[in-house]
Sequence to fold (272 residues):
Amino acid sequence: MLLETERNFDLGSFAAAQDSVDEYLHAVGDSLPIYKETGIVPPLYLAASALGTLLRKLDLPPGAIHSLQEVETLTPAAIGSQIKVNAFLEKPRRRAGLEFITAVCTVESDGAVALKSKSTVLVPSAGPSEEHSKEPKGSGIKAAESGLPVVSKEINQERLNAYAKASGDDNPLHLDPEFAAGTQFGGIIAHGMLTLAFISEMMAAAHGRDWLESGSLRVRFKGAAYLGDRVVARGKLAKEQNYSRTYSVGVWNSASGQELISGTAGFDINQG
Fold:
């Protein structure tokens, strides 16, 4: 690992080609027409690509666990634009024998800063983590209260394989049954950024271009989605002020009610 010696990383460049974007959208199961209609790249495509590249660069121990994620869209990135990624690694934090690693990625599109993404991962330990307890937790959002369309997806290995290929995140926790069985999860689980993409799809379905141009997310990963699980993304309006809106959002296991992701999603309303 490069954690003790390097703090700034040039993660290189890539083209946000239509084929690459389509591969990502297929992997997360997002069939909304808004991306082709506007020519704007899904914000989570940029965040996932940046994180996948960073994880390969850091070469973390197998099974590193995604704990927290923030995403802020500053300028919409056009499909076909040239993307450049830089990252800054904060000093690792250690608590109760665990190590938390936080990185801030800056994503540029054709020379303009398009997105900033802050990711925290937990280097695995022998015991279960608080963020990924398998015990069901009550949700703060009821289906009937939802102010957004509900997005429901099934987790299967084909989806995880496709997402690993599209994002570059090939953590064996999501792909290798034997490895995953030996972790505190006891089996393969979905990528955190995959399940987070369901929230982004929900926001894009409700708010279209406003979400793609200025959306932001602040979430905590609280539980794991296993093979065969059906998960749902829901949300409700939490705050509306001037030309901005903030929703309480989350992802739940539809069968057990366990809360897998909780946080907020916000955006500015375009007045043009």
Notes: Helices lie at 18-28, 34-38, 43-58, 157-167, 177-181, 192-214.
